[in-house]
Amino acid sequence: MKNNVMVTSPLLPPLESFIPYMEKIWESKKLTNGGPFHSQLEDALAAYLGVEYLSLFANGSMALMTAIQALRITGEVITTPYSFVATSHSLLWNNIKPVFVDVDPLTCNIDPAKIEAAITPATTAIMPVHCYGIPCDVDSIQRIADNYGLRVIYDAAHAFAVRNNGESILNHGDLSVLSFHATKVFNTFEGGAIICPNDKIKKRIDYLKNFGFIDELTVVAPGINGKMNEMQAAFGLLQLQYIDEAIGKRKAIYERYRHVLSGIKGLSFINYAESLNWNYAYCPIFIDERYFPLKRDELHHQLKKQEVFARRYFYPLISEFPMYKGLPSTASYNLPNALHVSSQVLCLPLYPDLRDDEFERIVNIIIRISQLKAL
Fold this sequence. Notes:
By secondary structure, this protein is of the alpha/beta class. The protein is 35% helix and 14% strand. It is built from 12 helices and 15 strands. Strand 10 and strand 11 form a beta hairpin. It holds the Pfam family DegT_DnrJ_EryC1.
């Protein structure tokens, strides 16, 4: 059992299925710089995800940083403290001041009702996160952005293949950014992508991720080396063949968790709409210490002692890290809901190959603990 129970993991194809891709890379002698597998994966992902244009990146952080550069964002950007640090780090790397606003306690997404009050003359954009793949209130956010002339960049790291009312959530905002890190539903070891609304912005993004080169002699922007290599792209093409199966297995495991644990007092699940075609990337539960025998951290510790590696995701808040604590928007009175959910959340192990006996062991530990007398 040790090291087998993980928070999340892809469905790994058989090793032998990757060998033909490696042989083709070896034969072509094209390892990077937009090789054939890179081009194939961009086209295949755009078709699968239901988007017009997509630009692949070596990782999601570079994609976020480049998205900000591509839209020439400056000044202040309103964002959420309840996310992975790459969200706000991408702003600091672009010399932009993050302004944190509170989240909706039911969805853990940025609360649109809090955005307008945070807008100043220096605000140029909003960067919401589709937390756990649950869509933000995209219509409300877009209305605010339109009223104030702001850009919207969605951190959609968790939102691969998520659709709401049949429409890809990746088509909202000016740009959406995906992560293909090894822990994501779809992965290329490391990797990421920017969803682009038109060919013009895709070309600018493609220049920026390749040092700003248009051709051998012409550099038009201070770009970075954000390109995805052929090995990553090949693995992505292979992963794409199994993605529907992987999401189906995730869904079955998530629904089992919900069925078995929903009746436990002091333990709750996240809310999501019935119209949502979700990807079941995570299984967050929330521990209310008023009714559950242990505090969240105590439950986390007990699970870890028994080699069940759940994750407090997201804890601490981004706003609690030293490089952000001095900002006025990080004051605790400004973020009560984010602080509350951060103190309660625990993501249970969820990956396609989670065995029945592993699942039973995890839920039985939680059930036994829930039956203890309150401390």
